[in-house]
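Sequence and structure are no longer studied apart. To make this concrete, we show below a single chain and its fold as tokens.
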Amino acid sequence: MKSIHLVPTAVGFVLSISCYAPASASTSDLLGATAETFAVLGGAGVTSSGATTIDGNLGSSPTNTITFPFPATITDGGLTSTAVAQMAQGDALAAYNFLALQTPTLDLTGTDLGGLTLTPGVYNFLSSAQLTGTLTLNAGGSDNAVFIFQIGSALTTANNSQVSVINGGPNDGVFWQVGSSATLGNSTVFEGNILANTSITLDPSAQIACGRALAGIGATSGAVTMADANNVAINAGANCAGGYGGGYTATENGGFQRILDSGGPPITAVPEPASLTLLLGAGLAGLAVRRRRRAVI
């Protein structure tokens, strides 16, 4: 897998979100084509105090301040422009609102997620949510299982906590809609997409596998704060139970391609376009190429 240091790049794919039933939703359907390429997205910047690895795009809008010490790296992605990060924030906001409107399967207010085994559904916390220990998400062998967590205020994990997905498939999705801020404790191994209204903090050695840290969705002051030995990966390959949640699958050459576009070329970062018009044009041209390729096949 190739690694690059922080350099200005962007991905030019723009699609709209469509309506669907959550039971059959894939990650790329819900997050939209711009937000799904981001592993880390802030509103008031992204900072790290140690060696951090991000697998996917990195950006922040409206304040595009990225402060990382060497040897922080991005793999299979790039540091995006403010314009692209702004589009990703728009996608994330639409997804956040969609998640918040889903009818809960079960009210877990006041219940620690640690020690629970949950099946696909919508789980609601009227206020804060706590994870101490291991949360097991059993997809039941389904390739379109969706787990949605609606959290009224803060999400907090204790040190060494874990989210484990079992019996999953590549199109499954796990989404954490957080009303205020999320904090992952030391050495937490987390899975799924965190969409936080304000900020996200990763303590030392905390990891998000097969998911994303998307912050500042409703409050432009929300930042992502990272520490030493953090790793956030859209798709962590063998480390992702079921390979779910990223909307991407690994390719033999070390890159990634969208699951819904399997058979097409891997998605890679491209130079920043001169304007939104050019970005839209690039996305439409890419879709046309895919249609022609599928027609030939």
User: Anything to note?
Assistant: The chain is about 15% helix and 30% strand. The CA atoms of residues 87 and 148 lie 23 Å apart.
